[in-house]
Amino acid sequence: MNAQDLGSTAREADPPGPRTVRIGSGAGFAGDRLDPALELAQLGHLDFLVFELLGERTVANAQRARLNDPSVGYDPSLLDRIRLTAPHCSANGTRIITNGGAANPLAAGRAVAELLDDMGIDMPVAVVTGDDVLDQVRAANPLTWEESLPVSDGDARLASANAYLGAAGIRRALDEGAGVVITGRVADPSLYVGPLSHSFSWPNNDADLIGQATVIGHLLECGGQVTGGYFADPSTKPVAGLDRLGFPYADVADNGDAIIGKLSGTGGAVTVRTCTEQLLYEVADPSAYITPDVVADFTGTVLREVGPDRVAVSGGKGTAAPADLKVTLGYLGGWEAEGQITYAGPRALDRAQQAAEVVVRRLERIHGYKASELSIEFIGAGASFRGLSDGADPLEVRLRVAGGAQCRSRASAIGSEVEALYTNGPAGGGGARTSVRESLSVKSCSLARALTDAAVIHVGELTDHEEVQDD
């Protein structure tokens, strides 16, 4: 894949001004596209390229994978992203920051360093560790946010605990010369705050500068969302070129003022509306957006269009960083199962409802389930509205039956009963699918910052003995 394949015709102009840093978003989640990051690496004249790859369930799933194999637990797409972009980043002086280390950042660092060595690319790799706080959480036994009960309560086994670290480790790794910085769980905006505070030597306790950097990071962290992805609606908010949506970058001055943009010729749009929606995305209180680095205040943020696909951003502020950090908890216990089947044509909903009744009755009579233990959805008949839509006369309905059990065989009965509807249920069922997997539940708690111990490890400086001890 190269620039010609992507349809690019010209390189972007260099960022204006000697005190401007250009930072680009190469991914907004683990399943994000690869080609927009390649475009940025090739044509964007970036100082930094960020891959944000973690969600709360993502890191818990990675911890589950690591329990089965200590050599894995980092994002499966990480090496592909590095392989694709590193040659251009190395040639253009672009440094890479990613939380793709997930549950095993040190293993990720070794794998990336080995890949770069095989490719003949000299980009020193550093790893930020310390987000794995399982031992500290077990010792402190704090209350969960969801139930206000000690994290040790319940039958499920606490298998992972990852604290949201801030930008300090990233900044230190960059200060010490890293070309690639790999972290585990850090707050999404911190992936951007770190390189910006490094570039301008901002004081870590300057809450207004760090607050403005958090605004920039929050705008960029979800990749294509700020360039029109997820924003788009064909009727009210049309966005052209979603099939080759360009990912955003920011030109940031040393006072924190920034311009959000995208590469010319790519799809999507950067407007005040796209930036406003992203600024408020997943924000409960715009005056107090809590991160490990700062409690950011978005209420004074000013967004101003300064050209095609260019929006100036200023006015973010903040107050001192919180004493406690958020922790994502992963619990293992029991099994989850589901079965799905589709009914189409006249009376589709009636037949799907009859099929659900058959399955529930059999699960009650033969397998000992209670109806309250099962989730029944009629997808296509207003299931997403949780009963607020009457779903009258749909032409196609997909029945979904889901539930859990402590043993795999009992959980498997759910899918088996749905699949049996092919010949034992109402007419016209088709497209049955079943699945069974070990149950993973995610909760949250707080942990005193003083109980965490973040560290920066330069992969090239590890001895064989240290690697064995770490494993």
Chart the SSEs and their pairings:
Blueprint: H1 3-6, E1 20-27, H2 35-43, E2 48-51, H3 56-68, H4 78-92, E3 95-98, H5 105-119, E4 125-129, H6 134-140, E5 157-163, H7 168-175, E6 180-183, H8 190-200, H9 207-220, E7 248-253, E8 258-262, H10 272-279, E9 289-290, E10 295-297, E11 302-307, E12 310-314, E13 317-319, E14 324-344, H11 348-367, E15 374-379, E16 396-405, H12 408-419, H13 421-424, E17 429-448, E18 455-458, H14 464-470
Parallel strand pairs: 1-2, 2-3, 3-6, 4-6
Antiparallel strand pairs: 1-7, 4-18, 5-14, 7-8, 8-12, 9-10, 10-13, 11-12, 14-16, 14-17, 15-16
Q: What's the gyration radius in Å?
A: 24 Å
Assign a percent range to the helix content: 25-40%
The domain count comes to: 2
- The geometry reads as globular
Cα-to-Cα separation, first versus last residue: 36 Å
Beta strand %: 25-35%
Descriptive overview:
- The chain is an alpha+beta fold and 471 residues long.
- The chain contains 14 helices and 18 strands.
- A 10-stranded mixed beta sheet has the order 11-12-8-7-1-2-3-6-4-18, sandwiched between helices. Strands 5, 14, 15, 16 and 17 form a 5-stranded antiparallel beta sheet that branches. A 3-stranded antiparallel beta sheet has the order 9-10-13, covered by helices on one side.
- β9 and β10 form a beta hairpin.
- α2 packs parallel to α4, α4 crosses α5 and α8 crosses α9.
- It is globular.
- The two termini are 36 Å apart.
- The N terminus is likely disordered.
